[in-house]
Amino acid sequence: MISSAHIARATLALADKHPHDADRVADMLLAFVRKYGLETQLPAILKNIETELFIRAQKETLMIQSPYALDNVTLSHIKKFVAVPEHTKTETTEHPELIGGFRAYWHDQKYDGSVANTLEALHQKLIDDEM
Predict the structure, then answer these.
(1) How many C-beta atoms lie closer than 10 Å to residue 85's C-beta?
(2) What is the bridge-based pairing of β-strands 109-112 and 103-106?
(3) What residues have CB less than 8 Å from 17, skipping those under 6 apart?
(4) In 3D, which of 25, 26, 48, 28 has the Cα closest to residue 36?
(5) Which of 5, 15, 87, 121 is most buried by its number of CB atoms within 10 A?
(6) What pLDDT digit, counting tens, does each position of 51-73 carry?
(7) Do both 36 and 68 map to the same domain?
(8) pLDDT (tens digit, 9 = 90+) per residue, 3-18?
(9) 98-104 long-range contacts, Cβ below 8 Å, gap at least 24?
(10) Cα–chain-centroid distance for residue 67?
(11) So what's the pLDDT on residue 58?
C-alpha cells in the first residue's frame, strides 16, 4: 500500500511542476484518492504536505538569533554577510546567552558571529595550548 508521505511528496512534485495550476493539482490528488479508495488517508496526506511545506519555508527563511532586538540596518548587514538576497524572509529571536553579535542559519549552514562563540573558541584554544 502506498503511504500518505509518498502521496504527499508526489502531490508536491506535481505542484512544483505546475506552480500556477493549484486547482488542477488538487483535483488530481482527489481523483487519485477516490480511485484507489484512500479517503481515510487524506488527513495524513494533508498533514504530510503541510509538514513538507513548513520545512521548505524554514529552509528559505534566514533564521537569526541575537541577544537583543535587531533594527533593519543591522538585518541588512547580516543578510549581506550571509550572502542572501535583501528580500529574503527573516525570522529573529532573542537569545541573551549570545552576549553580543548574532547567530544565523541559512540552507543548513550556521553562521556564528556571537560573542559567546568567540569566548568559547578562546577558551578551547587556551585549553589546547596548555596540553
Answers:
(1) 7
(2) antiparallel
(3) none
(4) 28
(5) 15
(6) 998 888 888 999 999 999 999 99
(7) no
(8) 999 999 999 999 999 8
(9) 98/65, 98/66, 98/67, 99/67, 100/67, 101/66, 101/67, 102/64, 102/65, 102/66, 102/70, 102/78, 103/64, 103/65, 103/66, 104/62, 104/63, 104/64, 104/65, 104/78
(10) 21
(11) 81
Q: Which of 105, 102, 38 is nearest to 70 (CA)?
A: 102
Phi, psi of 104 (to 5 degrees): -125, 150
Domain count, the chain: 2
pLDDT of residue 57: 81
The pTM of the full predicted model, rounded to 2 decimals, is 0.62
Q: What distance in Å separates the CA atoms of residue 92 and residue 101, rounded to the nearest whole number?
A: 13
Q: Are 29 and 57 in contact (CB under 8 A)?
A: no
The DSSP element (H or E) to which 36 belongs, if any, is: none
Same domain as 91, residue 68: yes
Q: Cα separation of 116 and 122, whole Å?
A: 10
- What lies within 8 Å, CB to CB, of 45 at 6+ separation is 4, 7, 8, 11, 29, 33, 38
- Structural domain harbouring 36: 4-58
Q: Are residues 64 and 115 in the same domain?
A: yes
Identity at 69, one-letter amino acid code: A
DSSP 97: G
